[in-house]
Specification:
The two termini are 35 Å apart. The chain is globular. The longest helix has 21 residues, at 40-60. It is α/β, with parallel strands linked by helices and 304 residues long. A seven-stranded mixed β-sheet has the order 4-3-2-5-6-13-12, with helices on both faces. It has helices at residues 2-10, 24-33, 40-60, 76-83, 96-109, 151-163, 181-187, 194-210, 269-278, and strands at residues 14-15, 64-69, 86-93, 114-119, 137-141, 170-176, 219-226, 231-238, 242-246, 249-253, 258-265, 281-288, 294-301. A hairpin with a 2-residue loop joins β9 (242-246) and β10 (249-253). Bound molecules: N,N,N-trimethyl-histidine. Residues 33, 41, 143-145, 147-148, 188, 195, 234, 262, 264 line the site of N,N,N-trimethyl-histidine. The site of N,N,N-trimethyl-histidine (AVJ) has 12 residues, from β11.
Length: 304
Amino acid sequence: MAQEVIAGLSSRPKYCSPKYLYDQKGSELFEKICELPEYYPTRTEEAILRQAMPEIAELAGKDATLVELGSGASRKVRLLLESLSVRCYLGVDISRDFLVSSTRRLAADYPWLEVHAACADFTRGVALPEGISPKRLVTFFPGSSIGNFTPEAAERFLISLRRCLPTGSGLLVGVDLLKDHAILESAYNDADGITAEFNLNLLDRLRKELGFDIEREGFSHRAFFNERQSRIEMHLDSRDFQVLSLNTKSIRFRKGESIHTENSYKYSIPGFQRLAGRAGFSSRRVWFDDDGLFSIHYLISSSR
Ligand code: AVJ
């Protein structure tokens, strides 16, 4: 983490991978974001899932193994576990304690289910742990987390995922849709400032875990829609000129210079289908809400 963060802060423009937003506090703040009135993705995805469940169950078939990427609080997956006849579940998340407590809860609530947890950074690639039977596999990648990747990286990620799945495996992926910019921007600039907290929490983490002399008071949250790139960008803007030090390293900030902490790409339905197609996944079915806010795709991995 230290190496990656220092490399990002030493480049121009400065950036930090969004995966570092998810320490225990960050994961908790993200759960709060999901309940905000402005943050439509979570509740919209959940409503679409509920409606689509009979069709999803049919596509997934019986006795499937369900792998969830970025499982977090493992809330949405309960819908799947209750409606599909899943035999085995694997939750994958970078936030260790959070992962352990949420998969423990799943195991307690569903005694018939075989539950596995893998604390892993899946952005580095995916491999199934031993003991996971690869027959009838469905991967669940909810929340439009795929939007954190650039389209090129999303394509590479899907290719690496496809390579470790048996041909014909299902991928159920939530994808946030392009829409009115005001709706998008308010989802990342909520009135209660929870998203700002979530973003600024990264600085606390750098101070506590890596020993940076960095204070959240020196920065402010900024999020906006970049139309040309079709993405929400989240930044931490330096309020003033400042120099941060870590051991022998020093990192200078101009006033207003930012750390780019997250991208959240927004797609059209055909745009995402084309991307998945280039990675060797063919579209079986896509569901979306009446307002066209969010989409869920059921894709099948092909053999090439
Ligand atoms: C978890 C990556 C899907 O991009 O909307 C929410 C993270 N960042 N508010 C998103 C997030 C700020 C979220 N993802």
